[in-house]
Amino acid sequence: MKKGLFLDVDGVLWPDVSLGGILDGFNEAKENLTQLKSSIFDSENFVFLAVSNQTLAARNLIPEQDFRDFVAAFFESLVNLELLDDYATCFHHPKALNESLRSTNCSCRKPRPGMINSLLEKNSLSSEKSLIVGDRITDIIAGQLAGLSLKVLLSGPRSFEFNDSDRTELEITSIRLKPASDLSDVANVINEWGFHN
Amino acid sequence: MNGGFTIDAILILGAGQGSRLKPLTDNSPKPLLSINTKGETIVGRLLSQIRQAFPKAPIFMNFNSLPEVVVEYMARISANLRPELIYERIRLGPTKSVVEFSKLNYEDILVINGDLVLSNTEFTRMSQAIDVPNKAFVVVHRRKKEEARSQVKIDANGFVTSIMELTGTGNHEFGSSYEEEVLSLSGIYKFPTNITRDYIAQYEEPLSPRLIEFWLSQIEVKSFEWVDLRYSIDSLETLTRARMQIEKEL
Fold it and tell me: Cα-flanking dihedrals φ and ψ of residue A19, to 5°?
């Protein structure tokens, strides 16, 4: 059985410096995915999956349908380049200005595990053989709630920021994670983990 | 079993608040304080000693305060020393942390307080002595009774017969000398997790008598006695003494 490698995108495939990093993040995503794939010893045994909260439309900064089309085209292009195998996106936000995207209890928005669970099922992957890489503790919590074996947190000054509206019903108190300094270090951590799994 | 060793996993307790070392701990959790002029940290030294003694056992460390600082530090140390981290969003206290950890699938685990500065020689001697499958060990050291927080009584074969919690200064009994020494817990424990897995910790307290009393009711607990350098960094004074000792070692 293949192993699932879930990747957050903002702050992982491109720097998380401002809202809307996805709008001009394509080339960096392409380069970073290429580099990551070549650095993982047995990358052919991994299914590469992107899981992303995208809130530009919820914030009314871009018309919803335009943004949905853009994000789909963005990830489809990476799939066509065989850099990604699949992806899932949550467009909701608990305080969305766009009412159709306002949701306090959608199952998809990280730290909830909905996107991960649906991709695990869709791609016939085992959570125990899968991992997530993220730059926020919310990515790690989503991975833990989905039962992923390894959760890799990229270090950064905002790694532990937690939106109050995302605290809600989460009762998780202990969160297991492996720290990494950057994407090339992530490959080291994955290789070490893959060696034992 | 792990590469010829019986320790299956190691948990470093690093989720304390470091309140007695403020303001030093305002920007750095206690285990990340440096202990020599080369910038070696308390936990960095501990990780090297652990890895040398147990080359393949997975190492974990729990943490709570200043999480970004901990992750930043750990992300930059070498991969073979880097522990898996357990972030406690709500501080559990050492006993509950150990009980939670015992739910993972490891049999024999070693728990080490993250504020210990230990002699390399003693660490090796200790790790060899306690590396016995399915046995529980507590590491003890002699100290003046009025300075001890716990008193461990052992029989002639080193088996623990009782553990008492002491309440800081004024522990001396009527007629006893202030200089009386007792065996006291050292902040290192080794036990098979099956004896702890179902224990429901009800008290947030230092990892000591209550949990170990429970072990004693389930299993024989043996002791190992330190004789060399050992500092539990709980004040500026102990930190300074440890730093001076380490500098001498270098």
Answer: -60, 145
Which residues are CB-neighbours of A173 under 8 A, at least 6 positions away? Answer: B88, B89, B90, B92
Instruction: Tell me how close the Cα of B87 comes to any Cα of chain A, in angstroms.
Output: 5
Domain boundaries, chain A: 3-177+188-196
Question: What was the ipTM of the complex prediction?
Answer: 0.90
Q: How far apart (Å, rounded) are the C-alpha atoms in residues B199 and B211?
A: 8
* pTM, full prediction: 0.90
pLDDT tens for A126-171 read 999 999 999 999 999 999 999 999 999 999 888 888 776 666 456 6
pLDDT digits (tens, 9 = 90+) for B199-246: 765 555 555 677 888 888 889 999 999 887 678 888 888 888 888 888
Q: Give residue A104's pLDDT band: very low, low, confident or very high (50, 70, 90).
A: confident
Residue B168 clears pLDDT 70, i.e. is over it:
no
Helix (H) or strand (E) holding B63: strand B59-63
Residue of A139, A122, A107, A181 lying closest to A4 (CA atoms): A122
DSSP code string of A61-86: SS-HHHHHHHHHHHHHHHHHTTS-SE
Residues of chain A in contact with residue B100, where contact means CB-CB under 8 angstroms, are 174
* C-alpha–C-alpha distance, residues B98 and B69, integer Å: 23
With an 8 Å Cβ cutoff, is B90 touching chain A?
Answer: yes
Q: Which of B122, B117, B141 is nearest to B243 (CA)?
A: B117
DSSP label at A128? G
**What pLDDT does B174 receive?**
52
**Which of A155, A175, A192 has its CB closest to that of B75?**
A155
* Amino acid (1-letter code) at residue B21: L
pLDDT tens digit sequence for A12-25? 999 887 778 888 89
Assigned architecture for domain A3-177+188-196: 3-Layer(aba) Sandwich (3.40)
Rounded distance, CA A121 to CA A128, Å?
13
Question: Helix A183-196 to helix A26-39 angle, to the nearest 10 degrees?
Answer: 40
Q: Is the dihedral of CA B207, B213, B217, B220 positive or negative?
A: positive
Cβ distance of A155 and B71 shorter than 8 Å = yes
CB contact under 8 A, A159 and B86: no
Question: What gap in Å lies between CA B226 and CA B122, rounded to an integer?
Answer: 7
